[in-house]
Amino acid sequence: MSKSAFSTSNLILLAMTYLFYFGQFGVLMPYLGVFLDGRGFSSGEIGELFALITVARIAGPNLWAFLADKTGRALEVLQLGALLTFGTFCLVFFVNGFWALTLSLALMMMFWTAILPQIEGLTLKCVSGQANRYGRIRLWGSIGFILLTIFTGKMIDTFSSDAPIYVGGIVLFSLFLVTLFLKEPAQDKSTDPHQISIWNKINTPVFYAFLLSAALLQLSFGAYYGFFALYLLDLGYSSQATGWLVALGVLAEVIIFLQAGKLITLFGVKWILVISILLTALRWYLLAIAANNPVILIVSQVLHAFSFGMTHAASMHFIHHYFGNKLQSQGQAIYISVGFGIGGAIGGYGAGYFWQQGQGAELTFTLAAVAAVLSALSLLFVSSKRM
Is residue 195 part of a domain? Predict the structure, then answer.
């Protein structure tokens, strides 16, 4: 096995990869709606665009994961995905209109889906699946999210609502450059005649329950991803204030990542997920009824530590141990396709339908809270030993 893949320098490069990947997420998640609103899109059109580009996360991850597992060249798939993501994202500088922007962003999203499963799988191999070491590397994604969210909010206030696409282009190019220097462990070429097929791992009640929960959780994020920044602008908060609030949530996520391994060991994956998702439901309900209160708004953002931080860490822990190294990429891809793809697309479309230019904000976030409660309930009947 290649020692360089386990070196400190390679782990630092992995941390930088997370920083730029989730930094780009920090550019687009809070502010893509602001950018589209600045281009004259209605809330319905924004919701439809979010749903359409999210559909690319359904098929995309599985195609890339199949390619990575079939060829055994996951790192090269990661590098290709980063290059094509940058190239297709740059189309937004040259096009306008609903369908042109939708196509360019959907292409970007399809290639973007090649990146995260490979990063996660590569990192988990390089840290030997240890949750504590994984958490320390993964938290740099949260740091990147914080830095880029605050910076982009300031750029919007200083320049215009087009600022996110310029910042995003720079971040994606930086991500591609970092991937060129990564190393991966040597492939295990041994064969196991009794190896379980991917279908036998998928076709179990525990995995179906996990996928249903993941899809409902990401569905509940639709209003937050699509309209949170616009919601706060309507309530009188500046884009920079929005950036600080989003950053606060991710700072809480960073802190929880440092303790994620211990908490998962102590409580187990199932109860970490159930408790975290119920706290997510509380978060959405607070946004529905009291977002005009700065103190309540701050509390709701701190709950991001659980609604994303702990749910993500626990989900990665479950997938890594459930699928093992040989089926890791496909397991990650199925999780992203169903949870972030199907769940995210339905959530984005539904949020746009109910938002009604901000008039339906309370109803939309209340429905998000209901979806989160259903997500938690879908795990209650799963045996803790199986997760």
Answer: no
Spatial distance between the Cα atoms of 286 and 81, rounded to a whole number of angstroms: 38
325 and 186 in contact (C-beta within 8 Å)? Answer: no
Domain ranges, residue 27: 3-183+200-386
DSSP letter for 159, please: S
Convert the pLDDT of each residue in 341-377 to its tens digit.
889 889 988 998 999 888 999 999 999 999 999 999 9
DSSP state, residue 203? S
Residue 69 in domain:
yes
Looking at the domain assignment, is residue 212 inside a domain?
yes
Total domain count, the chain:
1
The burial of 199, by beta-carbon neighbours within 10 Å (0-12 exposed, 13-18 middle, 19 or more buried), is given as exposed
Alpha helices in the chain (DSSP H): 8-38, 43-71, 74-89, 98-112, 115-126, 131-158, 163-179, 198-202, 205-220, 222-234, 239-267, 269-290, 294-302, 304, 311-323, 328-335, 344-355, 361-377
Structure tokens at 187: 């492939």
Q: 3-class SS at 186?
A: coil
Q: Residue 2 — φ and ψ, nearest 5°?
A: -75, 120
For the segment 254-283, the average pLDDT, to the nearest whole number, is 91
The rounded distance, in Å, linking the Cα atoms of 115 and 125 is: 16
Kindly indicate the confidence band of residue 247, based on its pLDDT and cuts at 50, 70 and 90. Answer: confident
Specify if 192 maps to a domain: no
